[in-house]
């Protein structure tokens, strides 16, 4: 995949640090800032945490990345893709995407709250098959 071209399509400046962030997120699926920082330090020994935050925020602003807020855990980041939900393991913290139609849930929330809702996030927590063994 040509990440440089993809960044340009989102009107994001192509930098070695941004390319590395995108490559890592594509490879791992979901990463928090700390894990991303420690991974990138190998390639860019002088990179700062502030640089990572700045790049992540710029990519979120352009909807190139999404922030996944997991209760009682650090947020993780992922490349933007079709709408989906997440499952997270309470033991090993593994995160997996699941395709789940949440439109009925959103409509029910609209009725109950009387809010004009247009988006929501669903995260299920449990024990993954690997940790269940």
Task: Please tag this protein with its features.
133 residues; 44% helix; alpha+beta; globular; two-stranded antiparallel ribbon; three-stranded mixed sheet
> What is the end-to-end distance?
36 Å
Biggest sheet: strands, sense, closure? 3 strands, mixed
The helix-strand sequence is HHHHEEEEHEH
pLDDT below 50 for ≥5 consecutive residues: which ranges? none
**Helix/strand class:** alpha+beta
Shape: globular
Average pLDDT reading: 94
Tell me the strand order in the biggest sheet: 4-3-5
Count the DSSP helices: 6
Number of strands: 5
Strand share of the residues? 15-25%
How large, in whole angstroms, is the Cα Rg?
A: 17 Å
Helix content: 40-55%
Secondary-structure topology with pairs:
Elements: H1 3-9, H2 16-28, H3 33-43, H4 49-61, E1 65-68, E2 76-79, E3 85-89, E4 95-98, H5 103-113, E5 123-126, H6 129-132
Parallel strand pairs: 3-5
Antiparallel strand pairs: 1-2, 3-4
Explain the overall architecture.
- The structure is a single chain.
- The protein has helices at 3-9, 16-28, 33-43, 49-61, 103-113, 129-132; strands spanning 65-68, 76-79, 85-89, 95-98, 123-126.
- With 133 residues, it is α+β, with helices and mostly antiparallel strands.
- Helix 2 (16-28) crosses helix 3.
- The strands form 2 sheets. A 3-stranded mixed sheet has the order 4-3-5, with no helix packed on it. Strands 1-2 form a two-stranded antiparallel ribbon.
